Amino acid sequence: MSPEAILKLLQYMITASAMVGKIFFLTLLFSLPLGLLACFGRMSKWAIIREPVKLYLLIMRGTPLILQLFFFFYFPYYVIGTTLPRFHAAILTCSINYAAYFAEIYRGGIESMPKGQYEAAKVLGFNKSQTFIKIILPQVIKRILPPMGNEFMTLVKDTALVSVIGVAELYQLATDTMSQSASTMPLVMAGAFYLAMNIIVSKGFEFAEKKMSYYR
């Protein structure tokens, strides 16, 4: 590829990266609270709540995201006679998928807390809500930051999969340009963009871990 072509592709990739960022942030916006809700459902003492949530977690974590993207994009057609907008289907699928992983991370963090923490809070006069919000939650956040960081970085890379239902983003731009130019340079450049975004995510979690370091 000529320097002019590379410069032009770079400009296109900066624009395409905005779509990656949009998918990333919207997925987190919906999946983080949904994951917490699923976590509480998974930990429920009521089987009528717990068992359906366990099935949801099994299906979402046990099937490929790419198949789920096809399902949520095409399945509505057989129910209501029309498909979801491609971007909406991508956000819905990624949010439901990642909520399942976040739910298990939340559960692992909550269940790792010693029972003595709850007993001490009760002695101090805290109710259940105060105990969770003021004592348990800050410590859980510290414990789940490393696995959460891994999932956030995976999400950046998984945004490339939405191209299978026609959402134009960085990976699709790179592959289309590669086929037209007969050069692997577009893929190398796309890889550099994904790496740069994950470096930002990684640094953000390193900063968060330092801020949470005073919790024991």
Automatic annotation (TrEMBL):
Record keyword Transmembrane present: yes
InterPro entries per record: AA_ABC_transptr_permease_3TM, ArtM/GltK/GlnP/TcyL/YhdX-like, MetI-like, MetI-like_sf
Keywords: Amino-acid transport, Cell membrane, Membrane, Transmembrane, Transmembrane helix, Transport
Coarse class of the protein's main subcellular location: membrane
Listed Pfam families: BPD_transp_1
The keyword NADP is assigned to this record: no
ABC transmembrane type-1 domain: residues covered: 13-206
Transmembrane segments: 23-43, 55-75, 183-201
SUPFAM superfamilies xrefs: MetI-like
Stored Gene3D superfamilies: MetI-like
Gene Ontology biological process terms from the UniProt entry: amino acid transport
Membrane topology, from the record: Multi-pass membrane protein
PANTHER family: L-CYSTINE TRANSPORT SYSTEM PERMEASE PROTEIN TCYL, MEMBRANE COMPONENT OF AMINO ACID ABC TRANSPORTER
The family this protein is said to belong to: Belongs to the binding-protein-dependent transport system permease family.
Protein name: Amino acid ABC transporter membrane protein (PAAT family)
Protein source organism: Mobilisporobacter senegalensis
